[in-house]
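Hi F.,

I've been meaning to write this up properly since the lab meeting, where we talked about keeping a consistent format for the predictions we share between groups. The idea is simple: the sequence comes first, exactly as it goes in, then the structure tokens exactly as they come out, then a line or two of notes. No screenshots and no reformatting. I'm using this chain as the first example so we have something concrete to point to.
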Amino acid sequence: MPAILGFVPNEAYLILATGQDFVCTIRCPDEQWAVGTTATLDINGTTWPATVDESEATAVFRVESDETDPIIDGTPFAIYLSFPDTPDPMDYKWFRGIVKRVD
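Output, unedited:
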């Protein structure tokens, strides 16, 4: 089997339900992130930033249901993480997958 070079994003389902806000906390135990680290959820070109706690390596997403209710089952999503390296930020796709509706 050939070697894998580069970062392979984590695979996940993003669960949505009509009338329910999307709330998700992602934590990287035993890590600390640089000040200025950002995380962004992208669904079909619409993006939402996370609240990031660098000292706890945690990203918290909250998206109101009026924004998520129109998103259909099977829509692709990605979560991007950006570290403020010098001179340019280091960006990568942290998670990828599809939306699963549980209506």
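Notes:
The beta strands are 10-16, 22-27, 38-43, 46-49, 51-53, 58-63, 76-83, 90-101.
Residues 23 and 62 are 5 Å apart (CA to CA).

If this format works for you, I'll send the rest the same way.

G.
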